[in-house]
Backbone:
């Protein structure tokens, strides 16, 4: 039987780590043997299967760029040499999640292994270093899996590149049995964001000020302490109808208590390749408002399961929010369509496509 050697750097609760957990869950259930090489401290630690072996290496993300760079370099040196463990494993496949595990890609190329990249970023909108890593990916990979057509359009390489959209775990999907009336009556608007302005935090604050009749919840992927320091440093206050929530390992309760999800990414600073929180919201039976471009826009059909509105047109977002949360018939129609649309992204569908790509 073929074995998959899977490499991932930042084991946290981000979208790329969650997607890898979903993928491996499906592969492991199908009987595939997997060796996972990653860091500690995130969603991947929850995987428990007899046919899974995990090798941890020390890595910790730091806001100090020098420390972070050294930590990353060490992780790549470790992965590079560890990969030679598979020198005599003729059928081993290298499955690389995100473009960061470049050490595994180079080692796999030297060893003549089949290399599958699951590409989550848009390197061309990040930095010169990411573009360098993307170039290495296009040279080393036998197959590249993109998460959206938008993301694939940036790659120079066309052969051996395909789109397989992200999915959600069965456990997540089965957690919801939406009551559209109750959701509508909650009048609660949700936004997920890192501790960065490009995801629309300030615009979300402004919407909360303009719409005091609604409840706003901003979920930030950071510790409570770091959030407090950030807001104090930037001298930012927020309205009484807005609640700040720190990083959560389980986001299901947040969706169950929400009415509407917003994604307010600024296309001039950041364009999403997929938009996991949008898919999660639709799975919970929530309408969504998203940007007009990027992979996230591919998840929404205007006026069917949500709306596509540029964050610079905040007045339109405000008006559409009021319209959705004032008209139950409209709300129910959008919510039902969101739920139906989310079924296209079941985990078993994604896993079947990946198995076909890997030729297992």
Residues:
């Amino acid at each position: 039987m073929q074995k998959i050697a899977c490499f991932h750097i930042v084991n946290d609760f981000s979208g790329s780590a969650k997607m890898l957990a979903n993928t491996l869950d499906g592969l492991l259930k199908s009987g595939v043997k997997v060796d996972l090489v990653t860091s500690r401290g995130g969603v991947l630690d929850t995987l428990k299967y007899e046919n899974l072996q995990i090798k941890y290496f020390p890595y910790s993300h730091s806001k100090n760029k020098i420390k972070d760079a050294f930590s990353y370099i060490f992780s790549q040196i470790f992965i590079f040499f560890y990969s030679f463990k598979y020198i005599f494993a003729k059928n081993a496949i290298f499955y690389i999640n995100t473009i960061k595990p470049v050490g595994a890609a180079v080692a796999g190329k030297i060893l003549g292994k089949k290399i599958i990249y699951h590409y989550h970023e848009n390197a061309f909108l990040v930095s010169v270093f990411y573009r360098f890593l993307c170039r290495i990916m296009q040279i080393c990979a036998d197959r590249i899996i993109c998460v959206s057509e938008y993301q694939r359009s940036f790659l120079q390489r066309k052969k051996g590149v395909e789109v397989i959209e992200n999915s959600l775990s069965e456990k997540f999907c089965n957690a919801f049995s939406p009551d559209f009336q109750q959701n509508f009556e909650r009048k609660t608007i949700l936004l997920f964001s890192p501790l960065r302005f490009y995801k629309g935090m300030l615009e979300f604050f402004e919407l909360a000020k303009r719409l005091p009749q609604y409840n706003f919840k901003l979920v930030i992927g950071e510790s409570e302490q770091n959030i407090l320091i950030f807001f104090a440093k930037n001298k930012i206050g927020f309205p009484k109808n807005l609640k700040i929530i720190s990083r959560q390992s389980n986001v299901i309760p947040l969706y169950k208590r929400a009415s509407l999800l917003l994604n307010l990414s600024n296309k001039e600073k950041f364009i999403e390749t997929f938009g996991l929180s949008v898919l999660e919201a639709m799975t919970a039976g929530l309408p969504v408002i998203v940007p007009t471009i990027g992979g996230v826009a591919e998840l929404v059909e205007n006026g069917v399961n949500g709306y596509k509105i540029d964050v610079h047109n905040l007045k339109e977002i405000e008006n559409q929010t009021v319209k959705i949360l004032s008209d139950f018939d409209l709300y129910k129609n959008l919510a039902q369509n969101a739920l139906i649309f989310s079924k296209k992204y079941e985990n078993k569908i994604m896993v079947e496509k990946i198995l076909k790509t890997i030729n297992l």
User: Anything to note?
Assistant: The radius of gyration is 21 Å. The CA atoms of residues 82 and 108 lie 11 Å apart. The chain has a mean pLDDT of 94.
